[in-house]
Specification:
With 290 residues, the protein is of the alpha/beta class. It has helices spanning 3-15, 18-25, 29-43, 59-83, 101-115, 128-137, 189-198, 212-222, 233-239, 268-283; strands spanning 48-51, 54-57, 91-97, 120-126, 142-145, 154-168, 182-185, 208-209, 225-229, 244-245, 252-261. Strands 3, 4, 5, 6, 7, 8, 9, 10 and 11 form a nine-stranded mixed beta sheet that branches. A two-stranded antiparallel sheet has the order 1-2. It is globular, with a radius of gyration of 22 Å.
């Protein structure tokens, strides 16, 4: 089984364009064409209709998607099981959306190791789309994201609610806030919509940041104010002793979702890991942030 052919097929299925897939996979357009042609020859069927408008999947091309994902998942699971067969240690691969790593993944890993001391953990930060692809191909056991897409063979569960809270190095009341020292952080489209509604017409500093890590760096170096995940506040206070909650600032809620492959949703280790995530979110709820 040639995984490159399968992964290229899935990307073309998503982009509907050979050139776009070539850019995303950092290969040439002729390589994309060659891989798709080889896969079609192996399957003895046409998967895409090519045209100036792009590449549209045929009926067979659409039907092959579920088979392709199953093949990739089976391969990844077999490879991981065989590579770890001599270690006799439980293994778990978890990927969290970038803005959740600081506030959630570190504490979860500590709790998981306390519960399963011999566990081998592989933890990473990534973007939502890539996390879901890795879950589908078996590269990742559990994904933690803000806004997953509904995809066949993927089990989605809303397991908690994070809140963004406003913090400032200057004040704890909105009336005293210097908006020229406020940093807007682009967390998710869900956050952006709520933020825009809450502060319609308000002028901000001409600096938009992409993550809570960047917000932490700017607040530590220059001071000011920003919205951050509530679960990150306590660790942020350790790095910036004079930072405080802006008590009357509105909260911005954000649902949290776990994503696992349907084949793994009843796996005891996965179930145990998800229980720790739920408990952690409940423990660090906004009611407990001072």
């Amino acid at each position: 089984m040639n995984r490159l052919l399968l992964l290229t097929y899935l990307d073309v299925l998503e982009t509907r364009n050979f050139n776009r897939t070539a850019e995303r996979l950092n290969i040439t357009q002729s390589t994309v064409s060659s891989r798709i042609r080889q896969l079609e020859e192996d399957l003895d069927t046409r998967l895409f209709e090519r045209g100036r408008g792009g590449a549209e999947p045929t009926a067979a091309g659409r039907r092959f998607e579920s088979h392709c994902r199953s093949l990739l998942t089976s391969w990844s699971l077999a490879k991981r099981e065989l590579s770890g067969s001599g270690k006799n240690r439980p293994q778990l691969r978890v990927s969290a959306q970038i803005n959740l790593v600081r506030s959630l993944l570190r504490d979860w890993a500590e709790a998981m190791r306390a519960d399963v001391p011999r566990i081998e953990l592989y933890l990473e930060a990534n973007f939502s789309e890539q996390i879901q692809r890795d879950v589908l191909t078996g590269e990742t056991d559990i994904g933690i994201v803000f806004a997953p897409r509904q995809i066949p063979d993927m089990h989605l569960t809303e397991f908690g609610l994070e809140h963004y809270v406003m913090v400032s190095t200057d004040c704890d009341q909105m009336a005293d806030l210097d908006w020229s020292r406020y940093y807007r952080v682009a967390y998710t489209s869900h956050f952006d919509r709520q933020h825009s509604e809450l502060f319609a017409g308000q002028s901000f500093a001409p600096t938009t940041l992409s993550s809570d890590d960047l917000a932490l760096g700017f607040l530590r170096s220059y001071g000011g104010a920003a919205y951050v995940p509530s679960m990150a506040v306590e660790k942020m206070k350790e790095a910036i002793p004079n930072i405080k909650l802006v008590l009357d600032a509105p909260l911005i809620p954000q649902p949290l979702y776990s994503v696992v492959h349907l084949r793994k949703r009843h796996d005891p280790l996965v179930v145990q890991a998800l229980a720790h995530f739920r408990n952690l979110v409940e423990t660090h709820s906004i009611d407990k942030v001072d």
